[in-house]
Structure formats: C-alpha cells, structure tokens
Amino acid sequence: MRRAGLLASVALFAACSQSPLLFTDGIELAAKARQLDAYPLRSTSFAGGVRGLADVVYARHDGFRPLTLDLYLPPEPLPVAGAPLIIYVHGGGWAGGHARASGAFSDFPGVLARFAARGYAVASINYRLSGEARFPVPLDDVRTAVAWLHKQASTYALDTSRVALWGGSAGGHLAALAALQCTSQCPKVLVSWYGVHDLQALRDTPDYLAIRSAAGRLLGCELTHCDLAVLQAASPVGRLQGRGPATLLIHGDADRVVPYEQTLLLADRLRRQGGMVRSLVVPGVGHSLVGADQAATAAGNKAALEATLEFLQQNL
C-alpha cells in the first residue's frame, strides 16, 4: 500500500514538472536553502495590486520582543464576505527563521504576494523561538496569531470561515499542531511542507541528529529522556481532534534533515481517522525540497507550489 502511494506521488510530481507552471513562472530559487529578508528591499506594493503591511504587531509579552506578522492583501474589489486567509508559519528548527524567508526561495515575500494576487489574504507570522521560550510557547503564539486575525477580520476584510494554516519544516510542525489539535477557530485546510509530525517516531529513528537535537531544545529534554506524554502532546499525530481539516503533505524522499516517513505517518493516521488527505512525495530532493542542482531545486519547489495552490483552490 505504501509503495503504491509513493508511486502515485512520483507520477503526480512528474505530471506537475511537465505541465506549464503559470503560477510559478519567474519565481527564483537558489541552489540551496537560504535566509534572506527580502521585504525591506521591496515597497509595500506588489505586482497585481497586492498591498503589503509589514511588522504588524499581534501580541506583546513582558520580557519578549513584540510578536509580528506580515500581511499581504489581495487587490480590490474583494468578495462581500472578505478574502479567504492563508496563515504561514516559517521554519528554522524552532530556533531561527523569519516570516520572510523559506528554504531556497530568493524572494519569499514575492511568493506570498502571488497567492494574494489570486484572491487570498496571507499572514506570515513570527513566533518565539526555542532560545526564547520552550514548548508550548511557540504553539501558543501561533494560536494567538490565529485568534488576533479572527478579531481583525473586519479591519482587513478577511473571511475567517475560510482559513488555511501552512507551514514548512518546524513551521509545518507548529501549523499541524494548531490545526489538528484545534478546538475553536479551526482552519479548513492544513498544508505542511517537510514537517515534523511524530516526535516519538523521530526519537526512535537512527541518525537525524540535528533535528532531534533541535526538538530537544524546544521541549527542554533530550528526546530519549522526554516523558512519553510530552512527546505525544508535542506531536501532531499524538492527540488528533476528529478527522481534521483537508490536509496536503509534501516531502522530498531524499530528506536527511526530517525523514520523509514523518509525512507518511501523519498521512496514514489521518486516513485511518477518515480525514481528507493528499500527500506528495517529491523524488530525489532533500529538505526544503533542495535537489542536486538549482534546476532540481526549482522544479521541486515549483511543483510543490503548484500543488499547494491547486489544493487551496479546491478546498478553501
């Protein structure tokens, strides 16, 4: 069954890579993952009439930096009910990263603005990192951002009945936790790119020392010494609430940072609970969908973007 699913994912990737990539045409990627804050190099107006609002404060906590998000608002006229909302949660091993950077994308704000040009409002959030606070604080920050955006729906013309949570790597972990352990203001869609989904399985996986160490810093205990209850509470597969939202999971099968079995585990668990889930395993690329060269990296990331846009159009 797993082999059949993998072959189907490979076939889907091949189809994506051969078809015209209209949405992703012109997007630039480096040969490997990078950290770049491209937003200050751009005005707050993007192509297609998209308006950007940088560093909007959504929460303040004594002793910590203000928590901010960037908003990308679609061109007018907007639907009477408001624009559907995508909330993006960045990666970085829970210890780094920024709302304006993702993997090998040279201009990630420009990527998010493309979604806004298609009619979506996009909020890309910053949260407290593992060097600032331990779990569940980063998850609490994601939930706080979701609640703040719900409260600001009329201000920014957001349709909060149509919300997607999307994250990459550590951000995929936090987005999946917020979506799958949700009890109120729950999203309709979850998208996780190469996310960590089962910390107990990660603990028992040989190698992958960097991500295991990063997870240990997040939790405040080495994975091999953490209580099982702690690992379950911090794992998207641990305490699923019902079937969950419509879910898209994307991972490279050559990922040596987060094992792609993490995506297979979550997909299997959701399907067994009757959830609607689609998984795309991209062959030959590693973490951040980085391939052997720039062309492979671009092909993998653009196929993932096309799949993400299609999934949002179908389910949000």
Automatic annotation (TrEMBL):
UniProt keywords, alphabetically: Hydrolase
Record-level Gene Ontology MF annotations: hydrolase activity
Keyword Hydrolase annotated: yes
Domain BD-FAE-like positions: 69-270
InterPro entries: AB_hydrolase_fold, BD-FAE-like_dom, GDXG_lipolytic_enzyme
Pfam families from the UniProt entry: BD-FAE (PF20434)
Coiled-coil residues: none
Protein name: Alpha/beta hydrolase fold
Species of the source: Phytopseudomonas flavescens
